[in-house]
Design the sequence.
């Protein structure tokens, strides 16, 4: 399996996803500041992987503390460093909350005990994520026909998680169950997670995959060659609106027009019951250089106005089903999503 992120005695080891697919470089990050910068600069990305990195970054920050003096303030500061990295993925904030709970539970313990408990929790979050993705895969693959062409957008694969993936986990599970899946991977401008990462993952596993640019999806849907869409999510509001990589909404509208099922695969840790609708989900605006430059080469006239929102929101009525580790839910999402947390 592709190793996205690992906890080691030397620090947090991550594959630098900015260099894929041409270079497979693993770096060791030794401080919470370094982990935060890795999240911000997209060394690691994808909501569940960001959650794992956040937890490990916090564990690392506390591990590096020399004394118990002002421990609560120091812990808050460490969490703040992680919190300020990326605003949209719910998993980042979910992981901070999980680590904070462990910290609070061990308030009377020694620094060494707290360090051990936080390290164990971070490693547990990593392990659980892989198990969760396998469950998402098993539930989701049942929605796919025996022989089907599936479009995915961005990368919701092993690289976007601790392993296996969410949307790509559904595809992996379908293949493991003997289904014949032909993947269409959207290139995913501007950061190219589809062409650089999804295509790379699919090729590594010999799952048939055709790379298309984002503006080709309608063409292939009209020809009947894209029969299902499966994507991941960065944050799912309580009413089932889904924030995911910019361009996902466009795909959902196209899918509706062509009567193509549009599925979202995500763990419960991506669902934010405190965000009522997609309108309240904060959308990250990234550096315009991601749009204006490629490999240092300037692609646009100097001074042109540029926008670079990293995510968009797909309204719940365009979503055929949401696939989680607790099962598959459909409309009315307000009720069905709430029921997932009562299981
Ligand atoms: O900006 P990114 O690469 O972090 O965005 C990733 C996505 O939008 C993914 O689709 C989402 O996080 C789900 S990953 C399982």
Sequence:
């Amino acid at each position: 399996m592709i190793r996205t992120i690992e906890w080691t005695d030397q620090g947090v080891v991550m594959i630098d996803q900015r260099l894929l697919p041409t270079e497979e470089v693993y770096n060791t990050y030794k401080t919470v500041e370094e982990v935060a910068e890795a999240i911000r600069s997209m060394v690691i990305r994808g909501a569940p992987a960001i959650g794992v990195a956040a937890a490990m970054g916090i564990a690392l920050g506390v591990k590096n503390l020399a004394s118990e003096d002002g421990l609560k303030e120091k812990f808050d500061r460490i969490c703040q460093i992680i919190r300020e990295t990326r605003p949209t993925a719910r998993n980042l904030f979910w992981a901070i909350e999980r680590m904070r709970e462990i910290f609070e539970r061990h308030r009377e313990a020694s620094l060494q005990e707290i360090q051990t408990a936080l390290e164990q929790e971070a490693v547990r979050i990593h392990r659980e994520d892989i198990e969760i993705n396998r469950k998402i895969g098993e539930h989701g693959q049942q929605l796919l026909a025996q022989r089907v062409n599936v479009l995915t957008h961005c990368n919701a694969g092993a690289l976007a998680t601790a392993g296996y993936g969410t949307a790509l986990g559904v595809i992996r599970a379908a293949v493991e169950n003997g289904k014949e899946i032909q993947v269409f991977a959207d290139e995913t401008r501007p950061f190219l997670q589809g062409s650089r990462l999804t295509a790379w993952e699919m090729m590594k596993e010999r799952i048939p995959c055709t790379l298309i640019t984002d503006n080709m999806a309608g063409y292939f849907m009209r020809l009947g060659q894209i029969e299902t869409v499966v994507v991941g999510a960065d944050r799912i509001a309580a009413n089932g609106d889904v924030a995911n990589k910019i361009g996902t909404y466009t795909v959902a509208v196209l899918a509706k027009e062509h009567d193509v099922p549009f599925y979202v695969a995500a763990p419960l840790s991506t669902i934010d019951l405190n965000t009522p609708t997609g309108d309240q989900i904060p959308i990250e605006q990234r550096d315009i250089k991601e749009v204006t430059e490629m490999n240092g080469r300037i692609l646009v006239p100097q001074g042109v106005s540029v926008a670079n929102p990293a995510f968009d929101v797909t309204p719940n009525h365009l979503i055929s089903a949401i696939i989680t580790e607790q099962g598959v839910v459909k409309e009315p999402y307000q009720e069905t999503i709430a029921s997932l947390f009562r299981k």
